[in-house]
Amino acid sequence: MHENMSSHTKKNLFSEKIDDWLIGFKDGADFLLLFFKETLSGNFEFKEFVNQCYRIGNSSLLLISLTGFVTGFVFTKQSRPSLESFGATSWLPSLVTIAIIRALAPLVTSLICAGKVGSSIGAELGSMKVTEQVDAMEVSAVNPIKFLVVTRVLATTITIPILSFYCGLMAMTGVFLNVTTNEDTSFPAFLEQAFNSIVYLDLWTAVIKSVAYGFTIGIVGCYKGYNATNGTLGVGKAANASVVMSMFLIFIEEVFIVQVTNWFR
Amino acid sequence: MNKAIEIEHLYKAFGDRKVLIDANLDVYESENMVVLGRSGTGKSVLIKIIAGLLPADKGNVKVLGQEVTELDKKAMNELRLKIGFSFQNSALYDSMTVRENLEFPLVRNVRNMSRGEINKAVNKVLDSVGLLKSIDQMPAELSGGQKKRIGIARTLIMNPKIMLYDEPTAGLDPITCMEINQLINEVKENYKTSSIIITHDLTCAKETGDRVAVLFDGNFKFQGTFDEVFTNPDPRIKNFYDYNFIENQKK
User: I want to staple B13 with a disulfide (CB 3.0 to 4.6 A). Which of A7, B47, B73, B236 is the partner?
Assistant: First the structure.
């Protein structure tokens, strides 16, 4: 005879709030393990993965183009007066490029994607959960984690670094436009000044950051959506929590990665 | 006659709320068993346990001779290929067309099917629910009754031996209800399925059920044919009948 203890009366280990936090942490860790297990177990849903990559890239491209360009242009404009007072405007391309590659491009892209993609994943999966579409997959002997979660998390992990690279390009376009109109710098000279101080570690750090942020956005959005309850209210909460938690984790990761990479400089 | 589903001493609770208490039920091959009961009495929980969507706390649930509570994930998935589950709100995949909804379980569970064979299977089940013309529509473009039919078609594409219907006529007008009841009977005739039909609609119970079981206080206190159950003098049965059947007929 089958028995389990799921229906016992709830007793708190610490306080109710700490217990809920610990349970949430454990559930999150279990979800993460389940993701890795299903990713490594084969039968990859390639078509759905490509579809998700297209959706993520397509939906964010315009916003990232605009934000990237404006960030580069405005950052250069705002930095000029300080450098001018030291007679060091020739350092401007190099200074702004370092800021863009090391921090701004991955961070701006991931924050935009946390808002746009993370909320969309949270809401979509939340809606599927509360309307029993996830159950429908399960009873058709289709693994919903493999179809819904693995594809989306891998899509964000791969697409967001590409978008970060693109955001960096747009930001550099903004920088060049500002520099060339003010200092009449040629394109080859600008490139030489801009990338003079960039080392491989900066590029690798940017890639690692974008991959980590992309993974975070995907897994948090899927976790929140997949565990949505309480109808449409739960869907809204899942979408909102996806954004808030992704952004929070991205900032923590930023601090951590910067700290670690500084050891290698 | 062989039993398709056997439920023995089934218990299920959510926290302190006991939903199923020592529930016992047998469904025979090629039989439509209607499970009646008021809202929140655990009717849907019962079929979710049968389909392995919820774990049982205690008790035995045998489906086609296999003990569901003891199956591992792989064995459960193999059993699920023989179970069709029609959800209360149809649960069609919003982002897919009707064709993609129907293909979804087929292409993932039956390997080496050609495009032609898949199309043939999709057309066959859509034809059997009378909605061939909706093949390229999105779920949002369908009416409630059409969604129910497509939901049933999606389960039929796998040729199930067991059908579980969760409130098949909920939220539908009387004529569409009648069509769905007719479809449930056609599915039984054409696909030789054994079914559990969860409902609180007594018209649906009368038209589709070979037997009915009424869920009160967590177990099936009354089982038999519709007439046997509803001629029982128990006041709870009388109340259920009066409020559901006579009131519905007045409407």
Answer: A7
